[in-house]
Amino acid sequence: MNKSTKISIITVSYNSDKTISNTIDSVLSQEYNNLEYIIIDGGSTDKTNEIIESYGDKISQYISEKDDGIYDAMNKGIRISTGKYIGIINSDDFYPDSNIIQKVVNKIEEEESDCVYADLVYVNSENTKKIKRYWKSGEFNRKKFTKGWMIPHPTFFVSKEIYNTFGLYNLTLKSASDYEMILRLLYKNKVSVSYLPEVTVHMRDGGYSNQNFWNRLRGNNEDLKAWELNGIKSPKFLRLRKPLSKLSQFIKRPKDNE
């Protein structure tokens, strides 16, 4: 493996004092020797900043200021990052073991791809050993997008060059900008991508887009908007197909080696 490949990890936070230590520890525990860790905080009013500051220079770059939402914060992190590839993990998510970044880099270099994605599990917000949903992404096929397919955004690593070429997160979308980004890169512009068939992220359930009925409804509306923004006609019944495609996540469970 090429040890010189620099990886930037970005964590976006806001009033996350109950979970952010878990996220930070999971990043800093990675057994990879060329890792840049950036935290972009939205001006938290709880103890989040105090916790972040306690890690000192283990955090490569740290900004705390008001922003225009989660995707604005992600864009800030991407702009200041210096790694060849960038991953984004939010302040209530964590890597399940210390070899995740190593595996991601190996996959990227093995297939010489511009980006990589993997699998994810949702865990109980209080008992993180309890799996609630298993998001097995499966091998990439561009046509899957027309059937409501989506990859787990926290597992998505993208080269800085690709962001520079095709742009950052669209701030007109409040809960589906990650979907729009993935659609723009993988479907519209056919950026090269690899699939790592392993669980690389544990996500606590109860995220913004899934918090209540209205957020889910807005997310569905924004999914259609994402196609429109890219000048592509949205597939028929996408608003139905996308939630239906998630049903298996509540039934399947990862095997011991996944």
Question: What descriptors fit this protein?
Answer:
about 260 residues, alpha/beta, Spore Coat Polysaccharide Biosynthesis Protein SpsA, Chain A, 9-stranded mixed β-sheet, 9 strands, about 30% helix, globular
Blueprint (SSEs and pairs):
Blueprint: E1 7-13, H1 20-28, E2 35-41, H2 48-53, E3 61-64, H3 70-80, E4 85-88, E5 93-94, H4 100-111, E6 115-123, E7 131-135, E8 157-159, H5 160-166, H6 177-188, E9 193-204, H7 213-229, H8 238-244
Fold and architecture overview:
By secondary structure, this protein is an alpha/beta fold. The protein has a single domain, classed as Spore Coat Polysaccharide Biosynthesis Protein SpsA, Chain A. Helices cover 31% and strands 21% of the residues. It has eight helices and nine strands. It has helices spanning 20-28, 48-53, 70-80, 100-111, 160-166, 177-188, 213-229, 238-244; strands at residues 7-13, 35-41, 61-64, 85-88, 93-94, 115-123, 131-135, 157-159, 193-204. α2 (48-53) links the parallel β2 (35-41) and β3. α6 (177-188) runs parallel beside α7 (213-229).
